[in-house]
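User: Okay, second chain of the day. Same drill as before: sequence in, structure tokens out.
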Amino acid sequence: MKRADILRMTTVSRREGPLSEVVPAAFLRSHAGEGENPDLPDTGSEPASRSDEEGLGKPGFVYHGGGLAAARARFRSAPSPWLDLSTGINPHPYPVGEIEPSAWSRLPEPQDLLGLQAIAAKAYGAPVPEMVVAAPGTQALIQLLPRLIPARNVAVLGFGYQEHPRAWRAAGADVRIVETEAELVAAGVDVAVVINPNNPDGRRISSDRLSSIAARLGRRGSWLIVDEAFIDVMGPEASLVPALPQRGTVVLRSFGKTYGLAGLRLGFAISDPQSASLLRAALGPWAISGPAIVIGSAALSDGPWLAGMTDRLARDSIRLDRLLEAASFRIEGGTPLFRLARHSSAAEWFDRLGASGILARPFPARREWLRFGIPADEPAWTRLSAGLGLEALSFGCEAAEG
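Assistant: Same drill. Structure tokens below.
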């Protein structure tokens, strides 16, 4: 995309809403290379389907995990409480402890937010705290970025978290789901999106390869967005963050998934300091609550907890694989926080488990798939075994312990 086109689109975007008004054209000029390739002809996009909004094509099930109210409405005779395995949220939450009343009653001080960003920078391997932006969940950032980076052509690598293509399409971009690195960096791509590890299949791209992709895109003024929502439990070497800053690269990190505190609504963007500053301005003051700052600062400082949890989830994911395989599922992939399983009768299994009060994650676009989160405790493991038509497996505890 040519520099003049980018600046023109920036002017247009300012008429679309207040978030864009705080973003000067310099935000885009700083990443607009001198030798951009011309735009490709329109190749068409994949419009959102109504089935994307309905689990297995039936009303009431949104495309994301969760949605227990809809599950209760559909499976009215299911026993309670529900065993919700439809998300990739850690079932072993970080121990919050007591929070000072002032965290609830007062607006956060600027230095408190700066402290959280410094702690996050150290935890994630960012070279300087100025590269870190705290936000009320990464979903807020996913929806904000298309307002700040006008793009005509967006490439998303593989089938994954559908909010990425949805947000860019809502901003007017032509979004293509691509399967190769060559397509991701093809001429005319203004923004490339990579979910790493991918949700739901767990596909991983090495940080070295991503760094190379970022350099290629950055040289011509294009952007790379890397969503690392599930990477915390896969080791620091898996992340692209230590290789930043790279021109036009933004990495998203979720807090709630690994730390089991999704309701806290906390996430981070890591980019070059100039882009980070403009993202921060777009979010505005007091975007993060006082309790989120307190809890996030404590959890991200607790390296031993994360190390122990990483080991525990690795063992639990092996145990879950064995349980699903015993029920004739084939493991397609996943992360230590969730497993993706294939079965020719996945829709029937979804209904059977639902009737037992167990919620798995269906995929309307991949009807042979179900995704399972990690059970929280032994009663949950026993209940899942029963729901799968299995007795408690003797190797389950052994897998969890060794």
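The two ends are 53 Å apart (CA to CA).

User: Thanks, on to the next one.
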